[in-house]
Amino acid sequence: MMRISGAELTIRLLEEQGISCIAGIPGGCNLPLYDALSRSERIRHVLARHEQGAGFIAQGMARASGRAAVFFATSGPGATNTLTALADAKLDSVPIICITGQVASSLIGTDAFQEVDIYGMSLPVTKHNFLVRSVEELLRCIPEAFNIAMSGRPGPVLIDIPKDVQSGVISLEKLPEPGRPEPPLAPDPLLIRRAADMCNASERPVLFLGGGACTPERSRLARMLAEAHQMPVTTSLQGLGVIPSEHEHSLGMLGMHGARCTNLILEEADLLLVVGARFDDRATGRMDRFCPRAKVIHIDTDAGEVDKLRRAHIGIIADAGLSLGALLPQLRKRDRSAWLLRVAELKRSQPLVMQGADDPLTPYGIIRCAASLVDEDAIITTDVGQHQMRAAQAYPFSRPRQWLSSGGLGTMGFGLPAAIGAALQRPEATVLCFSGDGSLLMNIQELATAADEQANVKIILCNNNGLGLVQQQQDLFFGGRLFASAYPGRVDFTRIAEGFGVPGVNISQSARPMEELRKALHARGPRLVQVDIRAEDKVFPMVPPGAANLDMIGGEYHA
Q: 398-422 pLDDT, tens per residue?
């Protein structure tokens, strides 16, 4: 018979779930948890500098591994600081568990010091949440949280534990079984048969892959389907890497900043086979003009996504991997050489234009040159802005879970802490974090965490001294009136990085920029590499907000 506190029970249950690393910040209402964690021999703690940073560190671990990750925060402002990371995880389907401390149960509802209703606040931005009322409830809530976070469409779960529950004592003979994801939902065989018939009848199909296809097994099946049945493949932002960028059938990312050829090819498709992607407005542009000639087969584990924005001719609510596995044997070999020739012609005549791709001092060149200096095991994170879109366009992705970027919420400040999390999860890999000066300033304090952990993170800072994507939209769609989007002063990021304990270099001031870049990327531990770029350099093509994908502007190719 064991007699342990609620805090000790929480840590034991997390150990049973296989958790080996937790990011967080202690405070008055979660100190019992931290006291118990200090005695764990199986879980290490990473002291973040902001709770949002802790949440994104957990996201980096979860996105890089495909498994649920955990972070801690205290009550009040500690808890409210987690909301952005939770909302980001909800929109991008990332399984993280946030455990917050709460004031004692007797004080809930009294406006006690650092009391907030984080249970109520987090309802819209979590897949599920718990307010634990007794030590006994922990035996159910913690395994169930992992079950919920990992089942079906993954997502974030919050567990709010009052301080008296953490300090309370329970006697028990054994721990409950760890929470496991539910078995994946198998597809309806009749719908698979109908989908196969529709694919077999198609002359100009396109395979559209999203984040729901971003696992090694689903990637393997999608690649088999594309190769065996001559289907060009496009991806959403979150689907990058499911099919290697250099694959002959890859069209890259579609939508607002997709290549011209990609959006033109989709215009001519007669079938769109959608796997694990939602019809996000940044991908589709104006919905009533998206793929107007195409019948749609939509495979998604989330019933709420099928028919939500684009009515599918066949909607299959099931696991993406099981669905692809069931569909493959029923597809017939087709001669689609005419379609592939047309695709090749459009890729040749309307390619993605990357000016200065060989020069590390240009916006595209820094991405391509950095990619040339690391191996395929590298993990790529980004913040949000022009650098994010250029990295999505230009980086040669080779595998799923290589690309970690904030998609649905578009959170500036995501990149650095997510990179730290990825480096903690995969310490043998180099993690490249592409950022902009506006984004890096959002969570720059996590440079201290990177230095503490000696995380193998290389921050590549594209500095245009402003909010580049905001300026781009102001210039193009607001009469060139640039307001509140350029910084009056200049920040010396290399000195700031060094103040945090991270060596920094501005290669724009170097006589040998490529050599300085090589040294930084090949050194062990965190580094910051700054490249000064021009604020007037835009990222093209671009679909104007609210327009159709065919209305894209810029990025024309001139032979």
A: 999 999 999 999 999 999 999 999 9
